[in-house]
Amino acid sequence: MIEALFEGLTLVLQWKPLAFMMLGIVLGFWVGLLPGLGGATTLALMLPFIYAMQPVEAFAFLLGMHAVVATTGDITSVLFGVPGEAASAATILDGHAMAKKGEAGRALGAALASSLVGAIVGAFALALAIPMVRPLVLTFGSPELFMLAIVGIAFIASLSAPGVRGMVRGFLSGGLGLLCATVGQDPQAGIARYTFDSLYLWGGLDLVPVLVGIFAIPEIVDLAIRRTSIAGTLPAGRVSKGALEGVKDTFRHFWLTIRCSLIGTFIGIMPGMGGAVAQWMAYGHATQSARNAEERKGFGAGDVRGVLGPGAANNSKEGGSLIPTVAFGVPGSTAMAILLGGFFLLGLVPGPDMLTKHLPVTFSMVWTIVIANVVTVIACFLFLDHLARVTTVRGTVLIPVILVLIFIGSYTSNNHYGDILLTLVFGGIGYLMVVAGWPRAPFVLGLVLGKIAENYLYISVARYDAAWLTRPVVLVLIAIALAVIFWPLVQRRRRAAHA
Amino acid sequence: MHSKASLALALGVMAVSGYAVVAAWFWPWKAALFPLVIGIPLFMLSAAEAAWVLFGKTERGVVQDFQIARDVPEREVVRRSAAAVAWIVGFFAGIVLFGFALAVPLFVFLYLKLQAKEGWIFSAAFTAGVWAFFYGLFDRLLHLPFPAGWALSWLS
Amino acid sequence: MRLVLAVIAALAAAPASAQYYAGKTLTIVVGYKTGGGYDATARVLARHLPKHIPGKPTVIVQNMPGANSIIAANHVYAVAKPDGLTIGTFNRNLPIAQLTKVEGVKFDMAKFAWVGSAASECTVLAIRTDLPYKTFEELRKSKQQIVIGATGPGANTYDFPLLLKEFLGVNIKLVSGYQSSADIMLAVERKEVDGRAGSFTSIRPFIDRNLVRPLLRARATEPGVENLPIDEDLAPTPRAKAIMALRSAPEVVGRPYVMHPNTPPEHLKTMREAFAAAIKDPELVAESKKAKMDLEFVNGDVAVKVMNEVLSQPKDIVDEFSKYIKFGE
What we know:
heterotrimer, A: mainly alpha, two-stranded antiparallel sheet, 75% helix, globular
């Protein structure tokens, strides 16, 4: 095992794979940064170039690119409040709030440092898990995946404000997300649900336009109202310091970062959970780490832990999501589906052999993700302080640029005007939610988990009748879901006892 | 202001979930189960929230989200957000009417000139930069299908 | 005299169309997002087509996803110009959508200018190798229930086993709701389901790994499964046979390529020749072999025949068919 780990490293640490990796990193950097450029689309465009490469070189190139997309997507989220990628939206809540307080540098530092920790922890967790990863994945059948979605939905409770009123609004927001997830043709009866005879809505609500609307539009309106720069009236000098502070934050909350990394890896390994889920579950977990109301208050208003959690999960999940692709030939995301195409082109057969005979090749991929992150983070730190200065540019000049990027970014998801319309509608809803004091995070959780929950529930019942409820892992997950819901209450009870 | 917004949202969710439940009622049960299981409690919760806003105390709990422009007077907030919404919707209308290729520079330039009150030279140069970036990347390099605007296809 | 005229016309047409495509951009509109089979085929073709079109135009791929390709098909049928510069590639089941009068269909599949199909799509039923059934007959006679995983109505993972259950009396429990055919494969591996139906291309890696064994196929075939029994041959009644045949008919035209109905015939001819030549191109063959996709050109005339066959079904067959099959995916 250990030899394979190092053999994998030596495979990557040769000048050709490294050179291709650098090329991939440079490309991925921009793809992640720009909302209109999706990671999956770019991978598809790059696929023809790998014919002439050796497997290790090709994956250094493709994975180097893919790993960086997730990292630099967070930069856009922090600076502009626009999700650079669908999977980096959770960083907006606290990351952008920090930028508005003049702590853009610190938020970026925290996001990048936690990404790095996430990538490394994820890689090592994977290395340790390799012997049991096949049984692990096979243990999680449809009933378990359904319960995993329920655990995710249960995080709505910890993402809501305390008190009955706060809970009601949290569940309203989450419920609305779940309801939105039912739009489109259903996979049981083939009924077109809530499509209003519109062809565009057949496939359901696309995640990117909705996320862009609900997060970016309120920020733009806010910026237009304030008529200042993003960081308000703070002087440039203050804003551009603090990247190092963000790194220190990562170590200040080291265990949180590690836990969120492990959450990310785990969700990544689970096939079919999708990239967006990991970040939001990590965010939910980060809010739980607040011990009292005073500590909780900062979340959403620029608490650095709200950046560290999603940042860590965002990158650790990439290593994890390699597993179903490599070991079973079952891609967990569009990007992974395209990578799978790359496997065939290179003559590699995904399957159990990749975890035994070809283990070094698998590890070389994990190493690529780690090294690509190290390189990106170091490169970013060189001009992070300059990047942060963007938040002191006059808002009136930034707004048209951000709007153009938002509109193109949402339009590229289906190349249809409906995408932009969706962004505008959910922009309006997002704005009202912010003004009304309804939390937006539960909505996203509902939206990303709704379909998963529905499908796997039907499969579980159709396959096992009621017997699925007695499966051991299901019981454990039920307990976890209950713990997630009641944890905030327990905390309050404990606090009351102290007082 | 937040109580009004909350009322509006609650009524909106009531309408949406009410419609969702009524529409789902006539579907085969397999398609209807989930919308009903979500829709019915959602309707009741939103009714509760609406009643709360109308008859309850106006207290603001701890919200885990940012708050819009706290230091700007409320009337100004309404005026400025209306302007922002008009710009955003106007941009979309411009795209539909004139297509991306024309609407993007038009919007950027007009916004800089009228809203940001920048100078002619800066506005023109900045617009040219944004347009070159947009055109080079999304049109030339990525070949995104940008449909021609309605206004232009009427003319031809 | 007529022959001479024809020769002159042919001679005149060749350089004319060479001039026509020179310096122009040919767009392939794909009815799906990046990352799937239709998109991958289009991108391989886009790389190799220019060599075989006189004038060597630039060929680009644009994705226009939504409503399982209906949006893209409506676009090519009505919005795109009939100038031979836009080719669409859509869901093969669009004729079914037209036949069952799906809301929003604004095209007539038989009227498109058909370039042809780049591949046929063979649907097979495969079950786990550790099950005792070696042939389809054994499975059918055993009367034991087997669990088949599926994505949803309208996909071949769902429709193919559904008809087997309805007409051939196979004791199938159909479990639907998996997010992709790859997810069903994982369910097969963890023994949640016993097997699945689907395109041979997507199942083949798992057959090679000896995880599943193919038992039955639909009409369209590919090298490797020619000898499997065919579903419609086993149909007990002519009516059942007609319905099974109707389901599988579009699969002969597995990767359809069409142009606007009013495209000038000379452009259509150029394209048909270009596609036929490109698909035989040794470089493309080597590439597609590596990518494990079998491309085989089916001429537009054959495709039009298939369309007419599907669209000319008598009403009672269509009504019965609609009871089982819904357009989707």
